[in-house]
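Ticket opened by: R.M.
Priority: normal
Category: complex prediction / small molecule

The reporter submitted a protein together with serine and asked that the result be attached to this ticket for the collaborator who will pick it up next week. Submitted input follows.
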Amino acid sequence: MDMKDIDSKKLKELYLEFFKQKNHVVIPNASLIPKEDPTVLFTTAGMHPIVRYLLGEPHPLGKRLTNVQKCLRTDDIDSVGDDSHLTFFEMLGNWSLGDYWKEEAIKWSWEFLTDEKWLGIDKNKIYISVFAGDEDAPRDEESASIWRSLGVPSERIFYLSKKDNWWGPAGATGPCGPDTEMFYDTGKEPHGEDCRPGDSCGKYVEIWNDVFMQYNKTADGKYELLKQKNVDTGMGVERTVAILQNKKSVYEIETFKPIVEKIKELAKIKSPDENQERSIRIITDHIRASTFVLSEEIVPSNVDRGYVLRRLIRRSIRHGKLIGIEKEFLGDLAEIVINIYKDSYPELEKKKEFILTELKKEEIKFRNTLEKGLKKFEELARQVKIIDGKSAFLLFQSFGFPIEMTKELAKELNIAVDEKGFEEEFKKHQQISRIGAEKKFKGGLSDASEQTTKLHTATHLLNEAIRRVFNRKDIVQKGSNITPERLRFDFNFERKLTEDEIKAIENLVNEQIKKGLPVRREIMTLEEAKRLGAQGVFEHKYEEKVSVYIIGDFSIEICGGPHVKNTKEVGRFRIIKEEGVAAGIRRIKAIVE
Ligand code: SER
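Result attached by the on-call engineer:
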């Protein structure tokens, strides 16, 4: 097989085919917004949607799964611009849920990578790393010896520490374990002396990671053994395709090239210099990420996911300006991204209007202040060696510069930014802490998500409580919206509720919370869910399996989650407002304390 024939589409097909032949079932690609894992802001790997099964719940489709998952990671955002690091990427994965273990996982990875029937990559170019061992888990001699048995010489196997060879948890808690990683030797001249797989010398590119997910990290930092030994693997589509096509960087493969070309055209650049090349790459990466985030109906804002999106968009605009693009351009690029990916991700085409409108709004807004903000920044930079907190906050507040942008600008001029001072200013201005957003950004346990999870469970309780208080089955949900601060719930009812009725609903919800009812999730057919009297939107196909949340003997609803595990976690429920929104539709706003 000519390796160069393999594009992204072909690689994905081959991968799924390979693992189907090893008895894996293909599971669908999940949303970029983790519905199953409140510990992260975005889906950063294929394992997030299946966390509960890694923790031991049986998966309805069995113990061997595989898929292609869209992922967004912001930890590497500062490396974007080099040949291989990206924020948005597609990940191929295969999982063993307490089924096969190291031997099969490693052998199959090797077979898929090197066998002529599959990718046929030169065995001599593959380097391996395994876990060196520490107080939490032993040195992984088992994996190393499996690699050696496959013919990988010892000198190409590196034992690395937890920093390099341990995956997860992505947030503060959750499944994790030692891993073994596969690298490709690009043959590039290394920067730095002790160049080895896993460092930033640029010669060895990680293409695949087999995680032996045996532990669960608890909130107090302990590693407990999981109920079962899982395998969680992830292979980067873009990087692997670049290798198969013998390209120097991911930006030259077919899913990037049209975007890169368009940017060059808009900037009227034929042969970019090093700085221009970096800007082109940053814009390419960020517009891909922004388009996918927007397709999930996230809008730019100053908190959580919206903040990440805002950062990506505004940084693209700034880099556009650096290479001479003065007019609005992100919409044109987003259309190219949509075209490239619409077959694999139909949500892009479906949300096209929304994506383009929101991009335009944000671009207009930021273009209005960017020029003046840059002038202000330059003025400051001429006067001082450190941008103090007040000035950084002024740039944020009056000119819309995310702090990361101010830091980037400062770095270019070799000056510092007082980030602490910025945070203090920020808090003073009573805004939601961006420190929190930053933590979540890196994958820490997210306060906002925790709060919305509680409110989500409270919404289910409220939904049922209304029906029970009025003893009427015909009252159903007509709308729902949850922010970290409150829940909003619309339902059909003819008149204003009385004080007593509101109190009765509130009390009934609080009783369920006090009882400490377990919240369970079950997968069943739509037919079965209906038979059990589940509430919910019945827009699925009849034979399709649906996810159903059952709260004790009180409530049952079709829903994707996430929810708390026990109603006790919800806290005290309080209705703060009841009003009419349309003829026959009432709205309740409530909080949990
Ligand atoms: N979760 C692991 C990773 O992201 C394997 O998929 O590298």
